[in-house]
Structures are given as structure tokens and as C-alpha cells.
């Protein structure tokens, strides 16, 4: 039952929901079939040899034709795997064509900067830790790193690809099933590597376009206590479009409250978690670059309320 539990879920390569993941899943099944078949033949041969030894009372000589047969089976098996690998590679990269939507994903210790090209203006729309993909359309993701080597992996949608400082690797994603999936950094990148997750939502084209249009809007600029606290305590590191805050050290927070989680999947999006993350980030995610913000209780509450309004 424990083994079967890994065959489904929001982070499983055994439940493919995209063209690239399906190609890799089929290659996995082919490898299991070929290697399992050869393993079964080895066990049959071993059993036959033990039976001959037991009945004859001495080591049985293996006929030459059996050796040739084993060699032929191995060569055929390896050839099938080579062809299967070639076909899978072709399928993974076959979707690279003009017209694919461009997205940039940059790995940081330990969060994800995500940028979409606005089809209306050509400008980049920035968000963080949550990737939205249109169903049945190819999205070309340019992967980079701001610090150490990371690895981008959304098992249900595609295979993993390293994110290397100083260069951009390109991965195409063509999802075929709507829903929420979970991505993960798959290359050890420091203390909080295990808490560098990525929420991925595959939705209809209409829903995606509506979401992207909303993400392109600037945030309102209310004359509230929470907005004033943010301007004094947070604007150096974070950006909120439409308010004058333009920090680039941390994630863009323009539509923070529309996201599913906080701190790259560490906490669910709630007002209490927002306030806890603002005041005691090291207690929740030790080693994070987010410093503790020394605020009074009323200021912390007002700031959390303001952040919760950024949808």
C-alpha cells in the first residue's frame, strides 16, 4: 500500500499530466519491461543451472548456444532502450516551435522568481513561487539561478532541468490536465533545500488569460497604517507595483494574497501565517534571507492585514 501511494498525487512522475512527462513515463515503463524481462530470464537460467547441478551431482556445463542466446537477448534489450531513449528525447523537445509563451524562472535560496511576458505590452510581469500554465498550450520556460545551482522539477508535467548561475536553460511544458501540481528544487542548494517548493496550476486558456490580466494590474495605494508600515520596513527588499516600492532583493508582492502559499510552499496563505512570517521568519524557515522585522503588535497586525489585501 505504501508503494502504491506513490503512483498518484500532485508530485508523482507516475501520474503524467503533460506531453513531456508522458514521454518520460513511457520510457520508464519500457525500461521496466526490458530490464524486468532480462532479470526474469537470469532467474530462469539460475534455476535451471541449480537443478542440473542437483540432479547431476556436479557443475553443469552451459551449452555454447545458451551463451550466444543470452548475448543476443542483451544486445536486443540494449538496442530497444537506445531507440526508446531517442524517441523520448524527440518527444520532449518536439514542442519547441514559434509562438510558445515565454516565462522566466529564476531560482534563489530558497524561493522562485517567476516572470511572464505581457502579450499586450511586451513587458515582464513578475510574481513568485506560483507558476500558472494554460492547458494544451506550450510554455517555454527559461531557467536561471541568482546564486547556486538549483534544479527545476514538476514531475507531473515534465522532467527536471538544472538552473545554473550565468546561463539560461530552456524547458518546454505542455500540460494536458487541469489542476494543482507541486514542483520542487531537485538539486541540493543549502539549508532549506527541502522547503523550496513551487505551486503549479494548470487551468483553461480563458482562466489563465484572466489571471495574467489581473497579475498585470498594479496594486492599489491605500492610505492605511499597514501600507505605511510596509513603506518604512519592507519596501527596500520588496516591490509592489503601483505603490513606489521597487525592491528586488525579495519576491514581488503585488498580488501576494492571491497565491496559495507563503515562503515557497512552507506555509499556507493565511493572515496568521503572514504575521508569523513577517515577525519570525528564522523560526519558521531557519537560514532564510528574510530578516525578522521588529514591529509592535499593532503594526504587525496592520501590516499583515495590508498584505492580505493584495489579491
From TrEMBL:
Q: Which UniProt keywords apply?
A: Copper, Electron transport, Heme, Iron, Membrane, Metal-binding, Transmembrane, Transmembrane helix, Transport
What reaction gets catalysed by this protein? 4 Fe(II)-[cytochrome c] + O2 + 8 H(+)(in) = 4 Fe(III)-[cytochrome c] + 2 H2O + 4 H(+)(out)
Query: In this protein, which residues make up the domain named Cytochrome oxidase subunit II copper A binding?
Result: 98-214
Gene Ontology CC: membrane
Picking any one GO molecular function of the record gives:
cytochrome-c oxidase activity
User: Quick check: keyword Ribonucleoprotein in the entry?
Assistant: no
Q: Which SUPFAM superfamilies match?
A: Cupredoxins (SSF49503)
Localization annotation = Membrane
Q: Name one Pfam family in it.
A: Cytochrom_C
Task: Give the transmembrane ranges.
Answer: 27-46, 67-88
GO biological process terms held by the UniProt record: ATP synthesis coupled electron transport
Q: Does the keyword Metal-binding apply?
A: yes
* Domain Cytochrome c residue range list: 221-311
Q: Which PANTHER family does the record associate with it?
A: CYTOCHROME C OXIDASE SUBUNIT 2, CYTOCHROME C OXIDASE, SUBUNIT II
The family annotation for this protein states: Belongs to the cytochrome c oxidase subunit 2 family.
Please give the name of this protein.
Cytochrome c oxidase subunit II
Q: Organism source for this protein?
A: Sphingomonas zeae
Amino acid at each position: 500500500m505504501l508503494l502504491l501511494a506513490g503512483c498518484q498525487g500532485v508530485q508523482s512522475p507516475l501520474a503524467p499530466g503533460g506531453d513531456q512527462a508522458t514521454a518520460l513515463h513511457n520510457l520508464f515503463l519500457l525500461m521496466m519491461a526490458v530490464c524486468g524481462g532480462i532479470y526474469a530470464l537470469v532467474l530462469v537460467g539460475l534455476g535451471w543451472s541449480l537443478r542440473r547441478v542437483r540432479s547431476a551431482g556436479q557443475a553443469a556445463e552451459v551449452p555454447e548456444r545458451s551463451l550466444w542466446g543470452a548475448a543476443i537477448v542483451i544486445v536486443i534489450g540494449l538496442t530497444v532502450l537506445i531507440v526508446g531513449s531517442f524517441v523520448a528525447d524527440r518527444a520532449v523537445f518536439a514542442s519547441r516551435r514559434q509562438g510558445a509563451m515565454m516565462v522566466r524562472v529564476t531560482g534563489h535560496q530558497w524561493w522562485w522568481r517567476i516572470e511572464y511576458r505581457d502579450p499586450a505590452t511586451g513587458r515582464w510581469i513578475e510574481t513568485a513561487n506560483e507558476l500558472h500554465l494554460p492547458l494544451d498550450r506550450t510554455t517555454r520556460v527559461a531557467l536561471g539561478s541568482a546564486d547556486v545551482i538549483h534544479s527545476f522539477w514538476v514531475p507531473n508535467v515534465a522532467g527536471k532541468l538544472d538552473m545554473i548561475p550565468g546561463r539560461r536553460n530552456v524547458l518546454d511544458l505542455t500540460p494536458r490536465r487541469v489542476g494543482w501540481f507541486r514542483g520542487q528544487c531537485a538539486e541540493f542548494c543549502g539549508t532549506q533545500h527541502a522547503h523550496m517548493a513551487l505551486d503549479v496550476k494548470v487551468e483553461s486558456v480563458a482562466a489563465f488569460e484572466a489571471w495574467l490580466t489581473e497579475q498585470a494590474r498594479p496594486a492599489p495605494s491605500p492610505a492605511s497604517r499597514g501600507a505605511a508600515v510596509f513603506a518604512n520596513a519592507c519596501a527596500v527588499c520588496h516591490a509592489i507595483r503601483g505603490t513606489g516600492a521597487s525592491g528586488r532583493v525579495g519576491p514581488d508582492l503585488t498580488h501576494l494574497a492571491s497565491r496559495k502559499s507563503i515562503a515557497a510552499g512552507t506555509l499556507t496563505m493565511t493572515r496568521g501565517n503572514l504575521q508569523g512570517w513577517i515577525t519570525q521568519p528564522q523560526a519558521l524557515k531557519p537560514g532564510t534571507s528574510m530578516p525578522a522585522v521588529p514591529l509592535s503588535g499593532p503594526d504587525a497586525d496592520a501590516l499583515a492585514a495590508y498584505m492580505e489585501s493584495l489579491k
